[in-house]
Amino acid sequence: MSEMRQRKRERVRSTPQDVIDEIHRLAAQGWKPAEIDRHLSLHEKFRDRAPRSLKTVRDIAAEVTPRDESGDWSFARAHTSEAELVLPVLAAVVENTAGRVRRVSNREAEWIARMREAVSDIPLWWSYLFARRFLVAQERGESTAPLDEFLAFAPWREGSRYGDAYLLGWIEWLEGWARGEWPWGETAGHAFLSELDAARDSGDDEKFNETIQHLRRARA
Q1: 156-170 mean pLDDT
Q2: In principle, which of 178, 188, 204, 211 could form an S-S bond with 184, CB 3.0–4.6 Å?
């Protein structure tokens, strides 16, 4: 790994996870790095913990922003079967970004159609987010296993065992997925899952099992 890439990773890793999640969230909504940087500096929750440089914000935003030059997708050039899958997502994108993003790319549309055909009940906005995550992973030569596992367990469905599979160490947690989705709230969720990871890494089976039981009671 080059020295420059190593320094970049160190800068990103030193950023608190909830700050990274916020940068990812805003980048997905079409915010530019400079806009995100200003948002963080004005927000009391993030102000004192935000990255010190715009470059770090840009690096973190790039984790969910593909370098996509495939051009804008258009209904006029699409097959009817693909358009049926992509058009509802395009509407969701416009709504969720408040008009900041009004188009999807051809490569995004391919992934959206593929996902919605295979996993028909995936929320529309999520299919857009995942299309972009798959594209980034491909560009960087990274494994898509965490994305595949997330889609396989479909945690948007009632009764999904995604959280339990993670707790048992069977799968990786999908980085960038909002841990605030857990029932006790964002801050506690970050702290508790960090404690769980520490227990697993320490090899303390008793503590790990106690943490799992506590977590399962909270999920009940």
Answers
A1: 82
A2: 188
